[in-house]
Structure formats: structure tokens, C-alpha cells
Amino acid sequence: MAAIGAAGVSSAVSEKQEFYQLLKNLINPSCMVRRQAEEIYENIPGLCKTTFLIDAVRNRRAGYEDPHPRVRAAACTTLGQMATDFAPSFQKKFHEAVIGALLRTMENQGNQRVQSHAASALIIFIEDCPKSLLALYVDGMVKNLHSILVIKLQELIRNGTKLALEQLVTTVASVADTIEEDFIPYYDIFMPSLKHIVELAVQKELKLLRGKTIECISHVGLAVGKEKFMQDSSNVMQLLLKTQSDLNNMEDDDPQISYMVSAWARMCKILGKDFQQYLPLVIEPLIKTASAKPDVALLDTQDVENMSDDDGWQFVNLGDQQSFGIKTSGLEAKATACQMLVYYAKELKEGFVEYTDQVVKLMVPLLKFYFHDNVRVAAAESMPCLLECAKINGPEYLAQMWQFICDPLIKAIGTEPDADVLSEIMNSFAKSIEVVGVGGLTDEHLEELGGILKAKLEGHFKNQELRQVKRQEGNYDQQIEMSLQDEDECDVYILTKVSDILHSLFSTYKEKILPWFEQLLPLIVNLICSSRPWPDRQWGLCIFDDIIEHCSPTSFKYVEYFRWPMLLNMRDNNPEVRQAAAYGLGVMAQFGGDDYRSLCSEAVPLLVKVIKCANSKTKKNVVATENCISAIGKILRFKPNCVNVDEVLPHWLSWLPLHEDKEEALQTLSFLCDLIENNHPVVLGPNNSNLPKIIRIIAEGKINETISYEDPCAKRLANVVRQVQMDQELWLECTSHLDEEQQAALQELLNLA
Predict the structure, then answer these.
(1) Burial tier of 364 (Cβ tally within 10 Å: 0-12, 13-18, 19+)
(2) Which of 16, 34, 9 shows the shortest CA–CA distance to 24?
(3) What's the rounded Cα separation, in Å, for the pair 384 and 389?
(4) pTM of the model
């Protein structure tokens, strides 16, 4: 037995040594060595891999030698990658071992680079670590981080060493961001050190450290909230203003700029309207950065070869030994500045009004800034925010701004080449329609928009046909299939944005938009054909749902197009399709008028069948099921003459409360209030026997955050609870069925509603 045990230990040591060599090979300069190492690494079982990595990070002995610092750094990096690739299951399985190993490595003063890699891995690990698990380590982890921060700050003062400190302040920011208000007890020990670093880091080589520390301070402030942060806000703002004035005289690629821009935005979120006084100091350099023209050049191939990769240029070969180049370093700063302008417009509204004219003239041309996708995304996102600001200045100013925005925004929908950017532009247009309201679109605008949306839908069908053709070709394989699925997902996402635009048009213009819509009607009908893929049917039904909800009773003239698809899709295997169909049946009852009575009658047994299905409450199916329950509630409430109310009501009550779909949950609670206030005998039950169930439903509604104090339904529900409280015996009977959380939820409702 002893001999076998010794052999086992020897084998384990050998395996570890081989693994450490493998880690060295993963960071070898030779591509061939790295590729071979990657193939071997992929075939190592997950548990062995994790155990060896943690041992390497901890600096445990493998035979006679400790792992080399480069091996430990590589192990930290690999743990971080595994935390990303296998989140959150990796965090749930290995939280104790990984957090402990990384913290001990950060404490070890032997190698700054290893410390830095450990801090980076910890940031990645905690990003996807469930808060409940992280809570187990918060106190020890945060105090540990502070001890290391103090040591590293002393090293900065004595020796000017900064590498580990740069990563450490980023780790503190990440922890604060993750645990949020739970960081409040540690705020007072961290903030003085962080402010001290900003004050000390004035040399050129410490710019990155200063920028990261400013970012950290803003993350900490956001985590603890305005009330706690106010004690330092004035001092911190002065540090930021000092840095801002220095930045105005610095180079465009100074590393502090992007950190400062983001920090100002967080300060705005923390201070709210109190930030308005600082906006004039921030906005000018921001607009300057957002307005910067990109550096471009046309160079001979020889000149391109002589340039270093570190110069920040990218080149496209144009042939004839010439290349087009653009300096990319300034583009990221431009994109960030544009995003921050959007943020200020969204957050400050009234405080941003005086800048809307200047900013809209900057942003509209950037819809065609093809050098950087995120610049175009920010330009698109800014449009509804700027229109909201313009609205404050009155309808005439709003109309003028919309006139400047509308035509370029519609044209961008037709010409944008990137699908991700296009989706943002379409989303922006949909939101803008709702802000501007009726009358914002001229006949010319509608004609152009109709042509573009028609082309998008026709392209959607054509692309599906082409993908089917590719599946029949001889070279078709799994890799091609994955590529085709990616293309399909991209097309479906654009289809959702077509649906968003139509939703905004229907909700804004009501039935007046229907004559224009009829040019698209055959294409929408094609979406809900039984032969179409399920996402087509889902979004086709959603479009008809909007027509029923916003354009009734006129919507009934299209009933023959959607009647059977709506009913038949209640049996679809895909819950997303069932949800769209159920929602449509509910709005028929709520908004459809008497013409829809027979259809509502037909719908009830189909809805009940879905609800009673054995797996109806699984995670996959629950939202569709809750839409079915809500639809039955709407039929009972708005079309009571097409169903036996007294027969269906007890079943409906037994299916409550709804948990997942907050909007539909609120609809059901509102109807429940109607029934209780009217003393409906079936709902109250003989001798009020259903009241314990009703009180529990109300408590669950508060726990699930369905009940909002701004909603009138909250007061109505609170009044129901108070009426029951008046009968002490009945109240004791009701509360005896509640746990502590439910009782606390009721008390909170009574206190605030």
C-alpha cells in the first residue's frame, strides 16, 4: 500500500511538472510551440486543469522547484479565461479555491507582474460570480485589497513602482461595482488612499495610474450612492477639475482622457441635477473630442512597411503599391466622447437643453461616419435624447430639430452596411417617432420609409431562400451551418427592429397609418404562414398584435389574415410564438370591440389547455403561460358575455400570482382589485374563504416588484389589505398562511401606499 501511495505521489508531481511546462509553452514566442501547447491543453479534463492552475497560482512546489513567475502569470491569465468561458458554473464550483489563491498571490511581494495578472484574473472572476457567493468573501477580500493597496502606495512613494498598483485600483473598482451598497462599510478606509494616489500621480509616466484611479473613485462613488459620497464629493470634484484643466493642454492620445470622460459620466449619475453646475467645464473638451477629424493618409507600400505597429495606424491595400491609412487611436476617444454626450443628454434633460442645437449639428453628420461603428451607434442613440431635450423648449423648436434629423435618419436605415449599427439606427428612429408624435412624418417621409421597410422584409425572405440553397450544396458542413445560423440570427434581429418601427407608428398614428401599412401587408401575412421559421411567425404575430391593440376597431378588417394563425399558434412548440399569440388574444378582448366576441370565445379553451399543460410553469414556458392567464383575465374583464365568468373565475384565481411578466402581472392585479371592490362572491368565496389566498397573491406581487408605488393599483391593493385588517380574526387567519418575507412585504406596501 505504501509503495502504491508513493508511486501515486510521484505520478502527480510528474503531471504537475508537465502542466507547468505546458503553461510556459502557451506563452512561447514560437507560433508552432504555442499551437501544439493549445491542442494538448484543450484535451486536459476540466477538473485536473483547474486544480493544476490553482496550484500554479498558489506557488505550490512541483517536485523540487516552485513554478516560474511566467508560469504563475500564465496560470492567472488562464484562470481568468476559464472564468469568462465557463461563467457562472466555474465561479459556483471553484469560488473558494480561486478567490483564496488569487488573493494570496496578490499579497506576495515577490513579483509585480504576477501580482498584476492575479488582480486581473480576480476582476474577471468576480464579474460573473453570483452576489450571494461573493458575499461569503467580501469582508476578508476587501480588507485584504486595502492592505495590499497601502503597501503598493508606499512602494509608489519610495520607488515609483506602479504596475501592480494600476491593476489593483481596477480590482477595487470592479469589487465596488459588483457588491454596490455593500461597499459602504469600507468606503472610509479606501477613499483617502485613492485620493492620495491621484494627488501623487502627476508625472508623465504615471498618467495611466492617475486615470485608472480616477475611474476607481467614480466606481466607488456610484456603488455607495450619493448620500455616502457627498462627504467627499466637493474634494473629488476639485481633483477632477484640476485634471480636466491639465487635459485641455495635453495630447489627444493621453491615456487619462478616456478615463476622465467616463468618470465625469459616473459623477453625473451620482450627483444628478447637482452635476449641472459642472457641465460647462466638461462639455467643451467633450465636443472638441467628438468633433475631431480622423487622421488619414495615402502612402506608398514602402512607407507603410517602415511604420511601426505602435504608431496606431491601420492600412488597407488599394493596389498599385498604394495603401489608405487611418490613425485609429483617436477614433476610440471620439466614440467615447460621443457616447458621453448621449449620456448627459439622457440624464440631465433640462440641464442639457442649451447644448442641443450644437450637439445635434455634430451628431447628424456622424450617422455617415464609416471609420468607426460606435461613433455611428452613439449618433443614432443621441437622436431621441436630443429630441426629448428639444421638447422642453416647446413644439416649434422640437419640429425644427426633427426636420433637421428625420431625413438623414431615414436614409441611414436604407444605407447602413453594418447590421449591429443598423439595429441601433432603427431603434432610434422608432423612439424618435414616439417623442415627436403625430404629424412628424410627411407623405414624402412615409413613402421613403415604406420603400425601405419593404426592401428589408423582401431581403429577409430572399436571404432565407439563399441559405436553404447553400444547405444543398456539396461543400455543406457543420461549420457552414454555424455561419448560416449566425446570418439567420442577424436577419431576425433586423426583423425585430422592423417590428419596433411599426409598433411606434401604430401606437402614435393609430388607424390613420393603416392605408400606408397596406403596402407591407402581404409581406407581414407571409411571416405568419405555417411554413415559416418560428421567429418569423413570432414577429409577424407581434405586428398584428400591435394593429389590434392600437388600431381597433378598424383592425377587424384584417381578421381573416390572422384569425387562424393566432389560434393555431397557441399549440406551437415554441413558447415565444405561443406568447405572441396569447398576447394577441388578450388585446382582442381588451381593445377589439364586439366584432371579436366569437374569436374570444374560441380562444378560451385553447388558452386553458396551455395553462394546464404539465410543463407550463417551467422556466422555458412560464412567460407564455402567464400571457395565457392574463389573456383569460382580459376576456373575463372586457368580454364577460362570451364566457361563463362564474365557471372560469375560480380557475383563473387559482393560477395567480404571476411572477415573470411584470406588465401582465399588473393587469391581473388590477382586475383582481375590480372584483374585490365589487364584492364578487366567486372571488371572495363562501364566508370570505378565499381572502387568505388573495392576501398571499398581494404579498407575492410586492415581493416580485410587480406593484409600483406610482401605480394607482398599489393604493387599491393596500386598501384591500387594510379592510381585511379591520376584522382581527380574519386577519390572523390570513397572516397565519404567510411566511416572514410575505408579512414584511405587506407591511411595506401599507407603509408606502
Answers:
(1) buried
(2) 34
(3) 9
(4) 0.80
The yes-or-no verdict on residue 47 having pLDDT over 70 is: no
CA atoms within 13 A on the CB side of 112: 14
Strand, coil or helix: what is 298? Answer: strand
Query: Which one, of 444, 452, 403, 395, lies nearest residue 425 by Cα?
Result: 452
How far apart (Å, rounded) are the C-alpha atoms in residues 205 and 160? 10
DSSP letter, residue 742: H
Residue among 82, 92, 72, 193 at smallest CA distance from 142: 193
Asked if residue 527 lies in contact with residue 540, where contact means CB atoms within 8 angstroms, the answer is: yes
- Helix, strand or coil for residue 324? strand
Sequence letter at residue 668: T
Cα torsion angle, 400, 402, 408, 410, sign: negative
Q: Measured between alpha carbons, how far is residue 98 from residues 51, 75, 77, 194, 342 in Å?
A: 10, 11, 12, 26, 39
Give the tens place of pLDDT for each residue, 357-377: 999 999 999 999 998 999 999
Grid cell 458542413 — which residue?
Answer: 477
Give the residue with greater pLDDT, 40 vs 449: 449
Confidence band (pLDDT; 50, 70, 90) for 306? low
- Bridge partner residues of 327 (DSSP): 313
Cell numbers that stand for 64 in this block: 523540487
Pairing of strands 296-300, 313-319: unpaired
Q: Which residues pair with 298 in a beta bridge?
A: 324
Placement of cell 407608428 in the chain? 505
Instruction: Give 522's contacts (C-beta < 8 A, 6+ positions apart).
Output: none
What are the tens digits of pLDDT across the range 496-516?
999 999 999 999 999 999 999
pLDDT for residue 10: 45
Rg of the chain, C-alpha, whole Å: 31
Give the CA-trace dihedral at 401, 407, 410, 413, to 10 degrees.
-100
- Residue 301 is predicted with a pLDDT of 67
681 pLDDT band (50/70/90 cuts)? very high
What is the three-class DSSP state of 63?
A: coil
Q: Which residue has the cell 387594510?
A: 722
Closest among 167, 152, 137, 176 to 73, alpha carbons compared: 167
The residue with cell 467643451 is 284
